[in-house]
Specification:
The chain is mainly alpha-helical. It has 22 helices and 8 strands. Helix 13 packs across helix 14 and helix 17 runs parallel beside helix 21. The structure holds iron/sulfur cluster (3 copies).
Length: 442
Amino acid sequence: MEPLELAVASSELRDRLQALDVRSCLGCGACASGCPIPGTPGMEGFDPRVAVRLIAMGREAEVAASAFPWVCTSCGRCSHVCPMGIDLTAVFSLLRGLVPRSKVPGTLEKGVSSVLETGNTLAIPLEDFLDTLSDIGGELAEEECPGFYVPVDQPGADLLVFLNSKEVFGDFDDLKWWWRIFYNAREHWTVPSRNWEAEDWGLFTGNPDVSLVLARRKLDLMRSLGAARLLIPDCGGGSYGCRMGLKTCALEDPSHQVDSQYFYDYLLGLIDSGRIRLDPTRNAGRTFVWHDACKHGRELERHFGKGYYDEPRAILAHCVGAQNVVAMTPDRANNYCCGAGGGNWPMPFEKESAAHGRFKVAQLEACRADVVVVGCANCRDQLQKRLPRFFPGRCNYEVKYLWQLVAETMIATPWTPAEVEAATERSRLQHQHFEAELDGGF
Ligand code: SF4
Ligand code: SF4
Ligand code: SF4
């Protein structure tokens, strides 16, 4: 393998890797035992132990030049078991950051440029964004939520919500699950008109400076809109990058602390407080299993001292009844990644990503659940779209988002005529405002 010209001087690279204490590696191989990469076609000879040993010997350019840092899904199974506490996920992410930007695989770097320039990964213009919210919101209002509209830039909202650009771009129906919940909970929420991206591709490209820019934007929006709480995005990488970025901002300046709420806590709060009511009999006769997303569980636990394992299970039990929930083995902090982490959904390493998912396929076959419930868009797409193509006949399950299941199980509480009238007036004023701003173009 040819050494790659790295983006920073090698002495600086070594300093940064040294700070991660790579040389304390014992060579025990526990990380390699837990990692799904060994056995992946095309990755022969590479595993986290080999990679760390090469880095410790000063041969980091060889690892950076390989596909290894990209095929690694940042799932954190290796770091979880390392007896020396080496943050291997951070080490491999650092290697990604040292690859010249022109060599970043697939569309990741383009997405980073787009989000920095336009405020969202897919460079969706403001006018199209507002059109989509208006059209899809209007559909929902007609279908089942009279009076519904998407509040944009509403000052003083209780909840500031960010959106995943792939849903705004084309997965329109996926937008409606959360919207239905906000409607029935009578939430005072809003989305920003600019910088609304929930995803964080800075994380995927090994560029923490980008994650920090995205977190600062969220902070600025919280302040300028006077929102009470920020809803941490549901996307695995987006939520993790957001938490890390907000933490850095608060460390830089304690006045940068903002109130935020993890979406599992939010959903559980709505259910426990009775703001939404569920009818679990709708899900009778089927079995459900929860897939622990690495970025909501193991990786969060390692960096923030708490992984979200119990809350999603409690929500699931509320939705379907505890007797209809089965378990995957292993799960919680030992769970296997679906194979799409670290940006592997949009990256060109499809076969490797699917091979990584072979453990997940085997887990799902063994537990025989009818429905896999997930909390991350990349997990959903991987389980629903990619793995069935690579493992035909073996993926006999349906996939649902947790918030989709909540929305489908929720007992509708339509607004009163007075509530509909008030919302219709607010929507009209909002439309008028943006029409003037866009000079009649909306
Ligand atoms: S983060 Fe996951 S995929 Fe990457 S080296 Fe560690 S165990 Fe393997
Ligand atoms: S688990 Fe930790 S100590 Fe053991 S080989 Fe891997 S990095 Fe080294
Ligand atoms: S795609 Fe899902 S399972 Fe895989 S690393 Fe991301 S959050 Fe974890």
